[in-house]
Amino acid sequence: MSAHLPITGYLDRFSHRPGETFTAHVGLRSPAHARARLVRVISGDPNPAGPGLRFEDLSAVFATEFAGIHQPVALGSHAIIDHAPARDPAQACTWTALIMAGLPHETRTVLSEADTAAQVTLRAGAIGVEAELAWPGGSLKLRTDTHLRPRTWYRIWLSADPASGVVTLGQTDTTGAAATARAEARGLRLPSGGTLLFAAENAASPSGHFTGKIEEPALLAGTRSSWPDALARTDLPVIGLWDFGLAIDSQTIVDTGRQNRHGRLVNAPTRAVVGARWSGTEHCWRHAPQDYAAIHFHDGDIDDCRWQPSFTFTVPETLKSGAYALHITCTEGEDWLPLYVLPKREGPHAPIAFLASTFTYQAYANHARGNADADYMSRTKDWGAYPNNADHWPLYGRSTYNKHADGSGISLSSRLRPILTIRPGYLTFNDPMGSGLRHYPADTHLLAWLTDKGLDFDVVTDEDLDDEGLPLIAPYKTVLTGSHPEYHTQGTLDALSAYTHSGGKLAYLGGNGFYWRIARDKARPHMIEIRRAEGGIRAWAAEPGEYYHAIDGQMGGLWRRNRRPPQQLAGVGFSGQGKFEGTYYRRLPASYEGELSWVFAGINEEIVGDYGLSGGGAAGFELDRADPMLGTPENAVILARSEDPPKSFVTVHEELLGASNTISGENAPDLMRGEIVYFDTPSGGAVFSVGSITFCGSLWRDGRFDGPVSRLLENVVRRFAGS
Questions:
Q1: How many angstroms separate the CA atoms of 634 and 627, rounded?
Q2: Whole-number Å distance between alpha carbons of 649 and 257
Q3: pLDDT at position 1, please?
Q4: Distance, CA of 679 to CA of 672 (rounded, Å)
Q5: Nearest in space to 218 (alpha carbons), one of 245, 237, 246, 194
Q6: For 167, phi and psi rounded to 5 degrees?
Q7: DSSP reduced 3-state for 628
Q8: What would the pLDDT profile of 395-408 be if each residue is shown by its tens digit?
Q9: In angstroms, rounded to a whole number, what is the distance separating the alpha carbons of residues 462 and 487?
Q10: Helix, strand or coil, per DSSP, at residue 171
Q11: Is 528 helix (H, G, I), strand (E, B) or coil?
């Protein structure tokens, strides 16, 4: 149990309103007495040169004690049919499937069937194909001893005849290369009507998870000694045949046999993937589901830890909207379970809403970057930062920025698991010029600044916006984003667009925002899906033919590829990227005179933001620029522009046509810039965008929230909020 943290957990969702109840699921390394208390999260930056980790103890509002128990994590996806097709145990049977092994040098379980008396298991990998049979008074194991090749489809099968005792095992690839093994077993009995698993064995505690694709698993009547054409469909009578090309947008697998023994998927394997018969004529699975009749299983998949509830917290009617956390402790350690409290549905509302980028937090959830070296851990200890880096805890699942063991990209992410990267004080980088914060803790720079300036604000989240649309944010005079609102659904973009076009004022305070399209399953609201289709700065590339989400059947990838580039909403869009380091903005003439000079009122400097807790500068890491070709409104005004991008910076791929040619016609190096942009909408709304991920890190200077960046944002927020 050493792979488990001393204490950790997750909540049923990221946010609730007063009167609603959070359910906490907590697991301990060893059973022990545990406690929980409520804190308000004011600042999540542990840097001693910054605002520090700041919490308000709200034990008087909520505190509880509970019996902490060990709660295991069961990684690995599989399919389960609780009641396999029934037949005479003395009847000759054949089990078969098409497979592409993602880890061909490791032996993993393709299928397993067991009742109370007998069991059959079919495995594949380094030994070729292996079959193991067990029955009262006997057992048998045989294998083909012909290893599987990577990225190759095979037909594998096992035929067993209790009457003759003959058992035949075989594999055939799509070129016709075959291997078989044969044995005889006296007294052979086969399972019937028990539990059938695909991609795992042992229903009580699934193990041996297959990593790779499985298509067309079937249970057939009769036997065969060969299968010369791997893609040929069976000529034996069907007892059960599961067509993975049906119900692709669900967690159900459909049995097309007469007994209709449908099954369910566990831990969300990837659907809408090309199968053995993909023709390449269609790229959308909705148009040719027979080409997508495979499921990609992985040994690291997880969709829900399924931990028992530990305690509940009902949000008091009087608790103000904001960022909070449940601080959980036991003798061996502590953890924080962040949460957001929304305002009451009927109000009153603050003039300002902070939109927490929970979809982006979830996309990066438990991102293992491989950078938690000795220097990183030393800084973490010296600063009293959050001590548990995702690199060291694979048990809790990886992020959509990581890959599965077979090299395929992780396209699904769940929030029903411990997410270490969403913790106050979590350091993403060992930043030599600042704090090295991203996402959740980085966004507390803005929340701490709002608190310091006495600006009244509420908090809403991406998930709430996707659920409720425009009515959620319509009451607010202004909506502020965090540092990196990268991932969005059509619902969230529609709501924000409607808000700015109905008089709302949006402040986009980050970079690389509104970039990737995600799908979300309303039946499983804790899951999001991302397909990293052609174009964009990508941690991995989706396979050809796998650009469409399984959840909603829509084209994945960049919103820009879906004709909704960020410039249409925010006036700026992703243009340059580098290491976690920043530079400054130089003010342009429009910032000194004219209708928008108020934005820089009280600022005398021409250079703005050449300091900061995020990479050492306000314009850094990922930069956005205006582009009329991509939808920046004609009335948009560029008030300031970044200069001198660090040597690590590059122009983003989607701007390049070749080594030097760009879509806009500008020189590629010139596109590595961030721009501060303002424009009004015809309805009286407005948009202010800063075009940089590191901007909010520069709200702090010389030991307090002060300086040109702080003054600039205060001018805008107070104007937008009417204060």
A1: 10
A2: 57
A3: 38
A4: 22
A5: 237
A6: -125, 130
A7: helix
A8: 999 999 999 999 99
A9: 9
A10: strand
A11: strand
pLDDT at 2: 56
Which residue in 711, 690, 691 sits closest to 700, CA to CA?
A: 711
Pairing mode, if any, of strands 352-356 and 311-314? unpaired
Contact in structure between 670 and 645 (CB atoms under 8 Å): no
Residue 222 — left, alpha, or beta (φ > 0 → left; ψ -120 to 50 → alpha)? left
Asked if residues 79 and 199 have their Cβ atoms less than 8 Å apart, the reply is yes
Strands, E assignment, 188-282: 195-198, 212-221, 238-243, 252-255, 263-266, 270-273
DSSP conformational letter for 364: T
Q: What is the DSSP string of 645-697?
A: --TT-EE-GGGBSSSS-BSSSS-GGGG---EEEEEE-TTS-EEEE--BTTGGG
pLDDT digits (tens, 9 = 90+) for 143-183: 999 999 999 999 999 999 999 999 999 999 999 999 999 99
Write down all domains in the chain, each with its CATH number in brackets.
7-73+307-322 (no CATH), 78-297 (2.60.120.200), 323-721 (no CATH)
Q: Count the Cβ atoms, other than its own, within 10 Å of residue 325.
A: 23
Task: Return the bridge partners of 209, or none.
Answer: 109
C-alpha 166/C-alpha 195 separation (Å) is 24
Which regions in the chain score pLDDT beneath 50? 1
The candidate with the shortest Cα–Cα distance to 155, out of 224, 78, 215, is 215
User: Is the bond into 348 cis (omega within 30 degrees of 0)?
Assistant: yes
Helix (H) or strand (E) holding 413: strand 412-414
**Residue whose pair of structure tokens reads 């590059």 in the numeric block:** 650
- What CA–CA distance (Å, rounded) separates 678 from 686? 7
Global model pTM greater than 0.90: yes
Q: Which residue blocks in 532-670 are alpha helix, DSSP H? A: 566-570
